[in-house]
Amino acid sequence: MTPLPHPAPPSAPLPTHALPSYLHAAELGPWGNYLQQVDRVIPHLGPLARWAETLKRPKRILVVDVPIQMDDGRVAHFEGYRVQHNVSRGPGKGGVRFHQDVTLSEVMALSAWMSIKNAAVNVPYGGAKGGVRVDPKTLSLGELERMTRRYTSEIGIIIGPNKDIPAPDVNTNEQTMAWMMDTYSMNVGSTTTGVVTGKPVDLGGSLGRREATGRGVFTVGVEAARRLDLHLLDARVAVQGFGNVGSVSAKLFAEAGARVVAVQDHSATLYAEAGLDVAALQRHAAEHGGIAGYAHAQSLSSDAFWDVESDILIPAALEQQITEANAGRIRTRMVIEGANGPTTPAADDILADRNILVVPDVIANAGGVTVSYFEWVQDFSSFFWSEDEINQRLVRIMREAFAAVWAVADERRVSLRTATFIVACKRILHTRELRGLYP
Q1: Residue 314 dihedral angles phi and psi, to the nearest 5°
Q2: Does pLDDT of 16 surpass 50?
Q3: Percent of the chain beyond pLDDT 90?
C-alpha cells in the first residue's frame, strides 16, 4: 500500500494564492488582530498544530441584502452578515449587533472570538456572530422591527436551535430577540424559543441573563485581584462603556467596596476621585440615554479617560480601544476586558512590558454566553431555574475556567490571553481531529 503523504509542518505557510481574498487583504482590521493571536498560540499546540489552519478560516460567511420599506414609503437597503467561524464542538453561538460601522472583518473576528470563548468555559457551542450596518437611532420602532425581521428571514437558512443561535449584542436587546424568535418561528411553522437567547423571560428567556456578562467580568476580576494581592476595598475602578456590561460590572465592584472613579460612554467622560454613585448614574443614564449631564462628577475630555489612574480598568465598549497610541499612558494594575477585542496585539505587548495584567475578553466576558447556554438548555427542557441557581452555576463555571487558564499561564510563562487560547484551541482542534474530515 502506498503510504499517505506526511502532512506539512504546522509552521509551513500556505501560498497566498491558496487563501480566499478576505483572508489576506492588506487591511484585515479586527480579523487581523485575531489571526495574530492565533499565530502566538500555535507553538503551544503540539501535534494538534497540524489542524491550526482550521482556526484561520471561517466555516461559513453569509452576506445578505436587507431591504425594508421606510415609514415615508422609500425602500432602503442595509447590508447584513452572519458568520459561523467553527462548529466542531456544537452549534454556532454569538450575538447580533446593529451599528453603522459594522464590517465583515469585524464580524469574522467576533465569530472567531466566540469560538475561543465558548471553548474556554467549556460550553458545547461553536462560534458565530452577526450584524447589520445601520445606525438604529435613525430608525423608527416600526422600521427597526421590519429590518430585524427581514434580516432574520435572510439568515434563516443557516440559523436554528441546533445550527446557530443568535443573541443580543451592541444596540440589540430582548425585544430584538423576541422579533427574531417570532420571525423564525413563523417561517418554520412552530414556536421555536431555542433559536435565540437573551429573550424576554416571558418568551423563554433566562433569569440573570441581562446581568450575566457584567457578573462574569466581576467574578474573574475578583479571582485575578486575589492572585495579585489587590484588595477590592477602596480599589479604584475605571469603566469605559456603561451599557449592560459596564454598568453591571461597576455596580458589583462598588458593592464590593471599590471606588468607581471614572466612567465613559458615547455621551461623556466623568470623574470623581471619591467614587461615583453607580446606582444614581445608572438611573440618570436610563432616563437621559447616556451619562452626560450627571451633576455629581467632573467632566473630562474623552481622550483624558486613558490618563485616569486606577487599580482596575474595564474597557466595556467596542473593539480596538486600547492601542499602541494610548497603551503607554494607561496607569492601572489590571485590565479586565468587558468588550470583545478592545486591546490590539501591539497594545497587549506594551501593557505586558509595563507589568499590567490583562484579563482577556475570551474569558472575562464569557458570563453572557454561559447564561445563554443555561437559557438554551432550559428552553429544550421547558424547566426553568431560579436566579440564585443561575448565578451560582455561572460563578462556579467562571471560577473554574479562570483557574484553568491561570494555571496554564503560570506553567507556560505566557499571558492570560495566550493561555486562554491554548486551552480553547486545544479543545476545538481535538474535537476537529476526533471528528475527522467528511467526506
Answers
A1: -120, 95
A2: no
A3: 89
Please report, as a single letter, which amino acid is at residue 82: R
DSSP string, 205-257: PPTTHHHHHHHHHHHHHHHHHHHTT---TT-EEEEE--SHHHHHHHHHHHHTT
Global pTM value: 0.89
* Cell 452578515 found at: 81
Cell 503607554 locates to 328
Q: How many residues does the chain have?
A: 439
Active site residue 163: no
CATH of domain 210-359: 3.40.50.720
Indicate the pLDDT class of residue 49, thresholds 50, 70 and 90. Answer: very high
- Amino acid making up residue 319: E
**Burial (0-12, 13-18, 19+ Cβ within 10 Å), 261:** buried
Sheet holding 269-271, edge to edge: 298-300, 269-271, 259-264, 236-240, 312-315, 334-336, 357-359
Q: Check: CB of residue 314 under 8 Å from CB of residue 248.
A: no
> Kindly report the CA angle at 42 between 338 and 409, in degrees rounded to 5?
50
In whole angstroms, what is the distance from residue 232 CA to residue 351 CA? 21
Q: How far apart are CA 97 and CA 81, in angstroms?
A: 10
Q: Specify the CATH number for 57-192; select among 1.10.10.10, 3.30.420.10, 3.40.50.10860, 3.90.550.10.
A: 3.40.50.10860
Please state, in angstroms and rounded to a whole number, the distance separating the CA atoms of residues 81 and 151. 9
Rounded Cα gap, residues 159 and 96, in angstroms = 12
| Beta strand residue intervals within 282-356, DSSP E | 298-300, 312-315, 334-336
Rounded CA separation 389/217 (Å): 18
**Catalytic residue, candidates 129, 199, 251, 426:** 129
Triad 125, 127, 131: Cα angle to 5°: 130
